[in-house]
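Reply to dn_fold:

You asked what the input looked like. This is it:
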Amino acid sequence: MYKRADGPLFIWDGLIGYMQPLEHKIWQMIAPGVDDLGLRLVRVRLSGGENTSSTLQVMIEPATASRTNRVSVTVDDCEKVSRMVSALMDVEDPLPDAYTLEVSSTGLERPLVLAEDFAQWAPHRVKLELSVAHDGRKRFVGLMEGLEDGDILFRQDGQEEVQLRLPYEALKTARIVYTDDEFKKLFNN
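and this is what came back:
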């Protein structure tokens, strides 16, 4: 079993992902409200602390967003989620100290957090980092082809003929990336 720097594996309501226990608690607390607004919760990340104030980042997207339907949230959506999260945080009070709340869209380079993200966004070009080295490397850029038997199926740039099986449980971060040509195609359609 790999030990993740970002937190333990969690399974909640059929979703599998990695995050810190407090991030998981906040996810569980706010996900139903995000769903009620017709949106999907993509990431909850808590950073800072100890000698600095904490920042709670909540990343959302429309429930209809997909590889082929690249729609984004509006400022009004972010405002609604911000108000809802603030109210829940005030009542539940999971953070003992002051914090800054940031609610945002995923942007084009969407993070992949949940196991279902890897199925939904495959195949796609991805940049990912593992918490432990796999064949001497932690960072990879290439074509993510899905998730199978707990492994991310991956073809690294420059070595496309070899399919790697990277352990999902060792995942630290992953996000969609585009080449310059792919960006041009996105904006010229």
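The chain has four helices and ten strands.
Hope that clears it up.
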